[in-house]
TrEMBL record:
Pfam families: DUF846 (PF05832). Belongs to the TVP23 family. It comes from the Eukaryota. Keywords: Membrane, Transmembrane, Transmembrane helix. The chain crosses the membrane at residues 51-74. GO terms for biological process: protein secretion; vesicle-mediated transport. This is Golgi apparatus membrane protein TVP23 homolog. It is a multi-pass membrane protein. GO terms for cellular component: Golgi membrane.
């Protein structure tokens, strides 16, 4: 949603940029880039354009900072290593699946009422 909004709305209204891609009859991809020129260029508010570019650049940087903070917090706050936690989790899951498989074999399978064909919509 953010990409679509930036590409189709804010990019066009705030800074006068527009682009799209189309494929011709031979299957070749064509990219079209447009920008406002001439008298329509004066309709762009300098302050709004600055807000657009700053937000466009700072948002991914902010996400990168959040990612780095979370990685460091994960390393500092955990007393166990990540590999031992994942190994223990996988070991438990395999054991649970094996137990459920063994106990399920002795019982008769029940018919699923949804598997029966019907004409009801």
């Amino acid at each position: 949603m953010d990409f679509w909004t930036v590409k189709n709305i804010t990019g066009r209204l705030m800074v006068g940029l527009r682009w799209w891609n189309y494929v011709d009859d031979e299957g070749k991809s064509h990219w079209v880039f447009e920008s406002r020129k001439g008298p329509s260029q004066n309709r762009i508010n300098e302050r709004e354009a600055r807000i657009f570019w700053v937000a466009l650049i700072l948002t991914p940087l902010l996400w990168a900072v959040f990612f780095i903070i979370v990685i460091f917090r994960l390393n500092v706050e955990t007393t166990e290593s990540f590999s031992s936690v994942t190994t223990d989790f996988l070991r438990k899951q395999v054991l649970q699946n094996a137990v459920s498989f063994v106990t399920r074999e002795g019982t008769t399978p029940q018919a699923n009422p949804m598997s029966q064909p019907s004409n009801t919509i």
